[in-house]
Amino acid sequence: MPKPEKKFQSGGIEASIFENEIQHNGKTVKIKKVAFQKRYKSADGSWKSTSSLTESELPKAILVLSKAFEHLVLNPEPTDGVNQGNNGGSE
Fold first, then answer.
1. What is the C-alpha to C-alpha distance for residues 4 and 2, in angstroms, rounded to an integer?
2. pTM, rounded to two decimals
3. Which among 16, 32, 38, 56 could disulfide-bond with 7, CB atoms 3.0 to 4.6 Å apart, if both were Cys?
4. Closest listed residue to residue 75, CA positions, set 6, 1, 9, 3
């Protein structure tokens, strides 16, 4: 698995930013994607991951996702016209 460009973590909650290459209009372009997960140790001692959260874990999830969004907005890269969504910045 590729190494994330940036990772934000609070306890077992984490958001990681990855750069992916896609084909768009016959060209290879790079886009950013955010992966989100909660890591925990199961009863048998093995590490597991999930995207399900308890009510008390929601603030941590909001924090790490907000930090990931902030990083993407404050460190924009040219997208060659590929729509990655509204990043909140001016173009």
1. 6
2. 0.77
3. 16
4. 6
pLDDT-derived band at 90 (thresholds 50, 70, 90) equals: very low
The b/e string for 31-44 (b: 16+ C-beta within 10 A; e otherwise) is bbebebebeeeeee
Q: Could you give the CA distance from residue 38 to residue 16 in angstroms, rounded to a whole number? A: 11
Cβ of 64: how many Cβ atoms within 10 Å? Answer: 21
User: How many residues in the chain?
Assistant: 91
Whole-angstrom Cα distance, residue 45 to residue 34?
28
| Nearest CA among 47, 48, 13, 17 for reference residue 30 | 17
